[in-house]
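Pair request: fold both.
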Amino acid sequence: MIPQIGTIAPDFTLLDQDGVSHTLSSHKGTNVLIYFYPKDNTPGCTKQACALRDAMPELSKLDAIVFGVSADSVISHKKFAEKYGLPFTLLADEDHAVSEAYGVWGTKKMMGHEFQGIRRTSFLISKEGMIEKVYENVKPELHADQVLADLAHA
């Protein structure tokens, strides 16, 4: 089940693309965008990551950091971040425990096949650690602009 707006964001600790551990609760005092995406180096995920990369100067001005989360490995994240010059943190949720805690792990369909995976969903977390906005069925190329608009009006 997806956490509701106005509730405390589920805390977690995951490794980033450099093998460094990150805990959500240690980022109180900063706006945090957690975006869950299906897979490194796929077309939609690359569009979304590059749009967020290009928006980072504006996101930073709005006191926001970005965590991208997928079930890919630390090594896969490292290659993805380097290939596209991603200036934000990618977190490896290989056992999908965090994706499950946020209600974004589940059955997906593609070309008539059903499988388990991450549904493209993002969460804007306030400086107090509360869920401010939930973005479901994210359109990769439009997502960064939506987040910027929401932060600007917060």
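--- second member of the pair ---
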Amino acid sequence: MDRTMAGRTSKPTVGSLPDATTGSSYVPVVLTWLVWSIFVASVVVLVARIRLGTSLEVTGVIGVDGLTVLLWVVVAFFSGIVHSYSRRYMAGSRHETAFFLSVFGFTVIVMGLAAADHLALFAVLWLAMGLVMAELIGTVDGWKQARAAASVARTYFLASSALLAVALTTLWWATGEATISGIAAVAAVSGLDGPVWLVAAVALVIAAMIQSALVPFHGWLLSSMTTPTPASALMHAGFVNAGGILLTRFAPVVTVDATLMLGIVAVGATSALLGKLLKAVQTDVKGELGCSTVGQMGFMIMQAGLGFFGAAITHLVLHGFYKAYHFLSAGERIEHASPIHEASSEAGVAGLVTVLLTGLAGGALFAALTGKGTSVDSGLLLALFVVLTTLHAARSVVERASLPGPARYGAVPLVFLPAITVYALVYEAISGVLSGLPVVSAPTELGAVHALVAVVFVAVYVAMEADLHERSPRLYVALLNASQPAPSTVLTATEEYDEY
């Protein structure tokens, strides 16, 4: 964050304050209009697919299915918002044109990835997506911490691309198919098993974990705070979702074995809980949002592990809107933050009963609207986790309001019940759009590991709601250390801050 060091002459490390009065390049204007035009075209394609069943493809190269058109609309919308926001944010910067070209290029690459069917094309676009995002992280080339953050991210993204290449090469060798659709067809007919499948499946899962910044691969995300705010919004609203998209595309591969799916649930749940804990010790807005993303991506991956890929896509869409808004309004949050007001966390019996009854009502509502949670399978866990995360979000919204204690708990159901209704309806709508995919929903039988994950998840959630985690200095220090970015990406001396 740029600061003025009162009473001190700082040595400029980034450069002088850009002159926003100078004429801007025509490139931002053209690209902003172009990306909004792409959004409109994507909406038309989505409507045509829903109403007319229109399908586009170049056999063996690209295939436009329900997931493709949905991602086109979402990616183009977020990119349009970022382009429009950046028109003012980057005005006068000497990096303005390069920044807009990178953001637009990133948009085109992700939209291409959503449509790619050929394995080589998918791998190349995955690599390009990571490299362009690394450049956006290090946009300010004269800032050594920004370049260091770009280098850290690039290392992670190259590792993810290498693992994806291993997975795709292994699948091609095992099936003889060079397309994602071809591999899905083989998996549906004859199945996949043995060491070759295991190598491919594990490589896919780890590649997804890296791209979505799951623990223990969250270091690149927490080191990326040098990224310009609009690029951060694009990263947290879109880029990190690639892990869920990857698992959804290759659902026929990862759903072959129940043990692997349990492993995906375990790593997702671990990241979801640790992300929530790491967020609790953050003192800056972007760090808090970064840890929140780690937790939310864990939740998304966990939904995929439960066999509900439609729910995972729903979560990444809703999380994208949520996180884009919070990053683009981060400055306003800092301006209006007050260290004086602290909402009391002492619920009392009446408050706890209200929250419990609200959660039960929300779970019943979600089950009635989606049918998930009405059978003794992994749908029960899906309903439980959706209720917990939505309830936590609702309580966070209410606690920021200036309400007395009793009114605060009375307001929770007024926020939570409409929120979980929206979640359920969006889930049903997106599942309908994805209905043509090989695997959209593959619920699994509940086992001991599922029960253990559920018990631990609920226990940690209740402990955090009761602020028990704040009573252990050792835990606080451990969480603080685990949430530290790479040392080379941190400003460690006041002299390193730019004068503005």
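Observation on the second member. Residues 27-115 form one domain.
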